[in-house]
Amino acid sequence: MKFEKKQAVWAYIFLLPSLIGIAIFYVIPYLMCIYNSFMGTGGFAGFDNYIAIFKNRAFLYALRNTMIFTLIAIPSLMIISFLIAKFMNSFKKISAFFRSAYLMPIVIPAASLIYIWQLLFDDQGTINGILNFFGIDNIHFFSSGFSMVMIILIYIWKNCGFCVILFTAGLANLPNSVHESAHLEGAGGFTTTVKITLPLITPTTFFVFLMALINSFRMFRESFSLFGTYPNENVYFLQNFINNNYNNFNYSQLSSSAIVMSLIFIGIMLAFFMYERKADYME
Amino acid sequence: MKSKSKVKKYLRYSLLIVLTLIFLLPVFFMVISSFMSTKEVSEMLNFNTGEFTSFKLIPGDFSLEQYYRVFFRNPQYLKEFWNSVLITFPTVICQLIVSSLAAFAFGKLKFPGRDKIFFVYMILLILPIQVTLVPSYFMYQKIDLLNNVMSIILPGTFSAFGICLLRQNVRYISDASIEAARVDGASYFKIFFRIILPQIRGGLISLALLTFVDTWGVIEQPLIYFTDRSKYPLSVSLSAGSADTQIIFACGVMFMIPALLIYFLGEKDLRSSFTRI
What we know:
In chain A, about 75% of the residues lie in helices and about 0% in strands. Chain A contains 13 helices and 2 strands. A two-stranded antiparallel ribbon of chain A has the order 1-2. At the A-B interface, α1, α3, α4, α5 and α6 of A face α1, α4, α5, α6 and α7 of B.
């Protein structure tokens, strides 16, 4: 790349506010966090904090749950949104009302809806009422492995509409001829989707994935609203571990677990990135 | 043949309606419940009656009691609502300014280190808030920003998300129009205001909407940075269980109205701006 000096100078002027802010509020805290993760009460501690957290049962639970949530909720969300987007696109004309309705959940703050979820999912809630009517045993959404199911359902409910919009936009940009020619060659609906549609909308898929990942961190708000500071072991996430260590003033463990958490997400993103060279986020 | 396609048509429309109901009903019930009397709410939220709770399509006992109590009996909620406003509006405005400037640089200008810097931004984009929460706490302690709304506004202003979103929009602007302006001797600031900003209007509105919703629902930061409970925004007291459950639905409705209003204003742009991703 050849640079024009004047342009480069102006570019940095435009970038300056953001660079300063990002450095102060994100880069420096992150570096501080790395530093703290290697420090103990008696000075430099090497990897001791890391070894300690991997021997800590609470941390292992938190790590396991966070991984389960990320690996199940995000793919499910993406698949469901894609299917709904295809379904919506299959209508020749569709009122904008439906798309607006789907997008609504993302603007409803977590705190507003807690009691609605409680009414739905409680041991004496509506869902159990319906199950009971059909002679099925109670599901303890607030105190069993189903807590995770509940959190994942709420996550999908909340983010689905947004991902549908992204996918619908990506699908709408595809030229019609692509599908027609595939159809002429005798490819079925499923084959066309997997072999032709999906590769063509990879930039969209990448963006949806990114949004799904970012929004998965925000699920802590729902979890906190529903379960408080000490949720049951099935929905005890890394965020809870970090928060509780903060309350106990255990900053070394807190920092090392925060670093582990960030490395996991960076790893997941880089993996997707490698797979996803076509996306034009980086040239 | 004809009847078969008709059945299929009905099935498709029923599916569409069922899906729509799934997305709308929780919000709908929330609004319905806000018009119940406090007595009815207490009964509904009593899970120890031995019977299963059910949702009511119409309040059995229509009343404005909850709203009356929120607005005239508990000034605390209006105060917290105002705290939310004080945090959210500055964040949205500052974020729009900073992000659009940076997005112009990343999207249209050439400078050394551009791709490397942007890569760092991408990494920061997926850094969960909890990672920097506590180190930031110590930093704010040193510079005396605890219990100050700035401790939420400033990090919110400089989020990498807005830059990535707007950059995509900026990249769709044709180079020719920028070249032409430069040949005419327009400064970069003029190009930014006259060419870039008008053309990324949709992206700016989407970003405003998403940032608004995100900041409006903020929970983690105030819990850690604010020791002074009177500074808590409504999002915290609604979710930390400190709110009065009898009027919780009216509070929730009051809380979601600003987000919904902004959503209805910007929703079209939200949908159209993402066709460019």
